[in-house]
Known about the structure:
Elements (H helix, E strand, L loop, with lengths): L7 E3 L4 H11 L3 E4 L5 H6 L7 E4 L9 E4 L2 E5 L4 H6 L1 H6 L1 H7 L5 H4 L4 H5 L12 H7 L27 H7 L3 E6 L2 E6 L19 E8 L5 E8 L10 E9 L5 E9 L6 E3 L2 H5 L6 H14 L10 H20 L1
Parallel strand pairs: 1-3, 2-3
Antiparallel strand pairs: 4-5, 5-8, 6-7, 6-8, 9-10, 10-11, 11-12
Helix pairs in contact: 11-12
The structure holds flavin-adenine dinucleotide (FAD) and iron/sulfur cluster.
Flavin-adenine dinucleotide binds next to strand 2, helix 2, helix 7 and strand 8.
Amino acid sequence: xxxxxxxxxxxxxxxxxxxxxxxxxxxxxxxxxxxxxxxxxxxxxxxxxxxxxxxxxxxxxxxxxxxxxxxxxxxxxxxxxxxxxxxxxxxxxxxxxxxxxxxxxxxxxxxxxxxxxxxxxxxxxxxxxxxxxxxxxxxxxxxxxxxxxxxxxxxxxxxxxxxxxxxxxxxxxxxxxxxxxxxxxxxxxxxxxxxxxxxxxxxxxxxxxxxxxxxxxxxxxxxxxxxxxxxxxxxxxxxxxxxxxxxxxxxxxxxxxxxxxxxxxxxxxxxxxxxxxxxxxxxxxxxxxxxxxxxxxxxxxxxxxxxxxxxxxxxxxxxxxxxxxxx
Length: 327
Ligand SMILES: Cc1cc2nc3c(=O)[nH]c(=O)nc-3n(C[C@H](O)[C@H](O)[C@H](O)COP(=O)(O)OP(=O)(O)OC[C@H]3O[C@@H](n4cnc5c(N)ncnc54)[C@H](O)[C@@H]3O)c2cc1C
Ligand code: SF4
């Protein structure tokens, strides 16, 4: 049986109180929302905070609404709430699709969208018990100095494994972060980095308070597709978010594709746009974009599943997403 270490659990009700607790306890404290990722990681000894600061009661992190042409989603809203919310469903159904495909129903009712954006990277050699990792000699991400995925590598390439960030990226969402130096807004497109140890451009003491998404213009549509071993619960083996803008003649005016669960950050695939803009989304155009995506993606062995198969499935996911958007 995997046991948790002893810790103190705080339940602040305001953002100021949460930030003060994190500041007061420094490196010994961690924020926790639904705990669906952090608690298993604590059981594996990957994190051993003495103080957990719960975010689920923080008022400023709640609510979903439209304000000044922007959809605001509180970071502590659960994935299930986001997936079922009528405003999200009407204005940004691609996000509802992605939130509704995270893990399984029980975890979606507890896991939050904030925890999804702030999710730790994952790797076959990292998400294991302390005993397992010790037997292998640990690795760069935790307690060691080598990488088992890229022998001789000096940088961790653990997989970004969250489903909502690719959709938030094609939607040009802004992240509202609050920390010791106050509040700031960061475009989600500039938030993730290629360092698998900590792949977020923020201080560990900063909290994600809310996500702000500009209401998409008429003619802009977003779709999401995900590859996983068991549709009922698993993390992505690959995922794809696609955004297409169509003009009055159904010709593509813009196209964006973000792919993740390959390396440490969700990746914007720029080149597909060239094949699509100015054309209708015919099967031939969709195939050209899918082929381009295949050429740009090279999954690593950071997830147990065959990287060649994951790569071969990228054009399939792109084709399915674009076919949905063309319909
Ligand atoms: C069996 C299983 C299957 C899963 N499948 C998927 C899947 O298919 N797709 C997927 O995307 N995820 C999956 N997950 C991971 C997880 O359930 C989700 O990512 C969920 O959204 C995490 O949210 P949470 O509120 O539980 O985060 P927590 O576990 O509470 O926190 C996760 C991390 O984010 C930090 N954090 C949380 N909220 C904030 C905040 N507001 N500001 C700053 N830091 C914060 C925490 O400190 C922690 O480091 C799965 C988990 C399990 C156990
Ligand atoms: S990618 Fe390498 S360093 Fe990173 S968690 Fe996996 S084995 Fe460790």
